[in-house]
Amino acid sequence: MISDIEIKNKWFEFFESKGFKRIDSYSIIPENDPTVLFTTAGMHPLVPYLLGEKHPKGNKICNIQRCIRTTDIDEVGDDSHLTFFEMLGNWFLGECDKKKMIEYSYEFITSPKYLGIDKSRVATTVFAGDEHAPRDEFAYNTWKACGIENVYYLDKKHNWWALGGGVGPCGPDTEMFLDTGKEKCSESCSPACDCGKYLEFWNDVFMQYVVEKEGDQVKPLSKPNIDTGMGLERAMVVINGLSSVYDYGVLKNAIDLIESRAGVKYLESEKSKRSYRIIADHIRSALFILGDERGVVPSNVGQGYILRRLIRRAVNCARDIKLDTKYFSNLIDIYVDRHGEDYADIKKNREFAKTELQKEVEKFSKALEEGHKEFDKVIAGIEKHKEFALKNGEIVPSVISGKACFRLYDTFGFPFELTKELAKEIGFSVDEEGYKKAYAEHQEKSRSASAGTFKGGLADTSEKSAYLHTATHLLMAGLRKMFGAGVMQKGSNITPERMRLDFNVDHKLTAEELKTLEDFVNDNIKREIPVTFEEMSLDEAKKSGAVGVFESKYGEKVKVYTIGDVSKEICGGPHAKNTKDLHHFKIVKEESSSAGIRRIKAILD
Asked: Same domain for 347 and 379?
């Protein structure tokens, strides 16, 4: 069996032999982007470069990116879905050599030196074309020339990639699948089916086009790119002929530990198997969110809400298999021991992650008890209504409404499955369709509230965002002047309307301190200081006194932005040309972000 570590090493060995430069994984918490909660793919942190920025390591790069993706959270527990995974990726920036990329993909997949998969078991798909873009015959013919027989044309739903919101770079892709050997579900069976015959494991995206405004037609992109992504865990299943992503490595170790402590066996039922897998996956995701260099803690909004949901689902599943939640701490150790060498921040923050996890577990355990009490109230209300109706000659069925089920879930964290089980025990049923409708309405509201187009780096590169970015540097300089050089940026989020900065100060800032900061920024705006930048090596940048917050993401060459004698930071930009462009800076809020981390929100008026 080939290990995941071997696959990682082979990935870098292969692409570095082809002239690609290795870059480190970025944080799992996006910087300066309000439209996505987590880094969901290797390309997200690279969007500025896909849009034309020059990357310090050139136009051919590769990495392995840690990712969190929760769009399929309800599927976790099956054989292939995870909320945390590692994505192997490589990029052509500002060029689109499709022939080379497809040939590289073929070589890495089939060469005995790398994955060594029999080409007869490989199926690929390409874009079938529509009224906006032509059929990708080039990709089809290149795969055929490589020796792949099973190449399928599929529609835009399956073989077209675009940024969220539909504005920005886009283009056809080609996806690679393993034929599992299962019988075809029908004569028309293809990788588009969900029958399980084909398992996707790699995707090459050809960013040849761009949509400039919502509703516009696609246009050729002046500097096309290629973005690829292979999920490490799925690749391991494909290469080793496993049944699921939980059958090897660190996830298998986690399952084994859970089974040694739980009161219900792993394979006792489909329900127990699913519960084990959800716990194994969700606790790993929780560790990476809590332990990230920009780590967040459970809350009712944004990333904290997702983290809370992951932990609470794990607690629910622990109840199902009679597992004491104190063993979640042992799972953290298993994951840190395995992943800590690749991601030093989770190693550094191991104890913090354990502490915050336990706090949420204890809080939810109490909430779960409240949920049981509320369930009893719902039943009592239905029984009272039935009794009243019976007096009037009406018969009311013993059904818990969809809205009541959803309220139990949304307000008390009471899982729908648990509501359904308890109802069945007392001869009640539940309005499942009503619950799904209420849940869908909730999801739609959530999507509408956070919809937007991912622009990477800054949320966009507009003038207003650039000015606020410069204001952030001035604010950071003011904080370091007031509280010392140990104050560092712990995250930022910038939109055209406002900026938000997280930083490590151990107390709530007083009104006097906030006034001093405001005055510091505004005094430097009035000084009309030019904002300049130059490219230099990371070592030169450090020697020059430039501040770099997240050095692991930098390449051999970096941009250093200087604001006179006030600020010198390693940064990708963009910025104002002169501080006078900022007019006037105003702090609108100061609050706690997490333990030891404060947050300032500010505007320019």
From this structure: no
